[in-house]
Each structure stands twice: as C-alpha cells, then as structure tokens.
Amino acid sequence: MSKIDNIYAAVDDFGLVTSEEASQLGMSRAELVQQAHMGKLVRVARGVYRMPVWPSQAQAPYAIAVKSAGKDAFLYGESVVALLELAPTNPSKIWLASSKRCRRNLGQGVSVRQISNVDPVLIEGIPCQPIMHAILAAAQTMGVKRAVAAAQEALKKGYITPCEATRIEQELLP
C-alpha cells in the first residue's frame, strides 16, 4: 500500500487530514506538497489537506476551521447553533475554542477563545461544545431572544432535554 493510500484510508468524515496526521503515517510535509501539486490532495488551510474526490458538505467549513486550529480545538457557541441549524446566525463568523492557546492566523471571520474544563462532543463528526453550554455561550454574540429560540428549536429536534431547556431560559431570562 502506498503512502497516499494510507492517507486516503485515514481521512476523517470530511476527507480531511492534517500534516501532523500524515506525518504519523510516514508522509513528510514535502511529500504532502508534492501530492497537492499532482492533484491527489487539495490544500484547504495551513497544514490541512482534503481528498479532491470527496463530496461537498455544508458542514465542511466548520470541520476545516477546527482542524486548522489544532487537535484540542472545537466549535463553540454560535457556531454550534449554526451547525445544527437551530437559529439564524452570522455565516461569516466561525467561533472556536481550545484548551490551548492558538496563535495561528485562521483567516478572516474565525475567532478562537481559550477555554479549559470542556469535554467536547462529536456532532456531525466535528468536535463541539456541548449543546446546552453552546446555546448559553451563543447568547453573548447572537442575543438572548435568539438563544432562547435556539433552545426551543433544540428541544423540538431532541438535542436537549426539557430540563436543559428550562435551565437555559432561567439563566438567560430575568
């Protein structure tokens, strides 16, 4: 099996692989660049590559942003609400969090907060802040009324329990 076949076998649900993951599979960064020049991989962000034959997915920008920020990064607040389509959000912003400091320039519209003591959950194959906490955090950027509406939508879709919805309303509404 060739190195590129190993890479193809190791990509995530979005057809993505980081240069660090590829290195662990025996492919150097120079070889990654060569594979990209040959069209076998597409560079989508600094240190992040995608298989060119992977189908387009609406959630891909979130997955790319999380991969670009490092292995401890996860979607945060309003971006979790956007991923689950719980309320209208600003599509030009992606909110991330990480337990470690992220010094990388992730591009315009991507913000990273340093947060500890959060156990991310996988949603649609992307590490995310737990939904109830994400809705509470989203109230800071999208407003209390829209966050409460997002909680009601999350309850309807079965993402949170009635107790969690009540807790969100109690914490957000005076």
Task: Describe the protein in words.
- The chain is 44% helix and 17% strand.
- Strands 1-3-2 form a 3-stranded antiparallel beta sheet, with helices on both faces. It has a 3-stranded mixed beta sheet with strand order 4-5-6.
- It folds into 2 domains: 3-50, no CATH class; 60-172, no CATH class.
- A hairpin with a 2-residue loop joins β2 (42-45) and β3.
- It is α+β, with helices and mostly antiparallel strands and 174 residues long.
- The mean pLDDT is 90.
- The longest helix has 14 residues, at 144-157.
- α6 packs antiparallel against α7 (144-157) and α6 (131-142) runs parallel beside α8 (162-172).
Question: Key features?
Answer:
174 residues; alpha+beta; 2 domains; 3-stranded antiparallel β-sheet; 3-stranded mixed β-sheet; 8 helices; 8 strands; 44% helix; elongated
